[in-house]
């Protein structure tokens, strides 16, 4: 089992992205439109996925938040709810209340390609949220979760339940479970080389010579 605390402390998004590039997985980083509410945030955990669909009404007697509530109430320490909201930009499914409920359950953060709201309150509580924009629009009558813990696409990147999610100021990467062990082993090894590269550069050795020695740039 991966040590999420160690991963959060020692690794970073660009390193994991480079390693997956080297393994032939070139599409694991989310686009630059997905940003943290706070650039100081580092988010590492396991995906709990949710698939939204657009709606344009709330039927009488319907609880439009039913699946959303069930997902949040089932979160375990280290989980990250990942919302696939589509491309319409019609909903802000995440706010202060979901952040609070998730935080007290030990969730590691939240990720969505939709909007987020209540941002001052979320920033004040220090809960990591990575989002596709900021807006006030409630999901009620605009979007509804149709399935949870299923494979989804979030901001164009495939995410399956249990995938390792890593987010920091450089962006978000998704490490599929099937390659996680290989990616982490390679990342820790590359980290050693990057530290040696940095030390040599700080000592005044030329970039060309350092690259020839370590093959890292």
Explain what you see:
The chain has seven helices and ten strands. The chain folds into two domains: 4-182, Glucose Oxidase, domain 1 (3-Layer(bba) Sandwich), CATH 3.50.30; 190-214. It has 217 residues and is an alpha/beta fold. The longest helix is centred in the last third of the chain and has 23 residues, at 180-202. Helix 2 crosses helix 6 and helix 6 (180-202) runs antiparallel to helix 7 (207-214). Helix content is 33%, strand content 22%. Helix 4 (96-104) links the parallel strand 3 (79-84) and strand 4 (110-112). The protein has helices spanning 4-10, 13-22, 66-73, 96-104, 119-125, 180-202, 207-214, and strands at 35-36, 43-54, 79-84, 110-112, 129-131, 143-148, 152-154, 157-159, 164-168, 171-175. The strands form two sheets. Strands 1, 2, 3, 4, 5, 6, 9 and 10 form an eight-stranded mixed β-sheet that branches.
Index terms:
alpha/beta; Glucose Oxidase, domain 1; eight-stranded mixed sheet; two-stranded antiparallel sheet; 10 strands
């Amino acid at each position: 089992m991966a040590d999420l605390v160690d991963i959060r402390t020692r690794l970073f998004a660009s390193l994991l992205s480079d390693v997956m590039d080297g393994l032939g997985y070139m599409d694991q980083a989310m686009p630059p439109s997905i940003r943290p509410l706070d650039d100081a945030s580092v988010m590492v955990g396991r995906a709990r996925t949710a698939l939204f669909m657009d709606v344009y009404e709330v039927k009488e007697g319907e609880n439009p938040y039913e699946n959303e509530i069930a997902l949040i109430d089932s979160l375990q320490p280290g989980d990250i709810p990942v919302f696939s909201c589509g491309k319409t930009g019609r909903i802000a499914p995440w706010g202060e209340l979901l952040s609070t409920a998730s935080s007290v359950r030990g969730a590691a953060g939240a990720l969505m390609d939709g909007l987020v709201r209540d941002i001052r309150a979320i920033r004040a509580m220090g809960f990591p949220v990575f989002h596709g924009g900021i807006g006030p629009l409630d999901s009620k009558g605009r979007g509804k979760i149709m399935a949870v813990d299923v494979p989804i696409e979030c901001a164009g990147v495939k995410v399956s339940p249990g995938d390792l999610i890593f987010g920091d100021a450089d962006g978000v990467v998704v490490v599929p479970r099937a390659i996680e062990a290989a990616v982490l082993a390679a990342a820790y090894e590359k980290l050693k080389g990057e530290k040696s590269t940095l030390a040599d550069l700080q000592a005044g050795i030329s970039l060309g010579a350092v690259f020839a020695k370590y093959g890292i740039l």
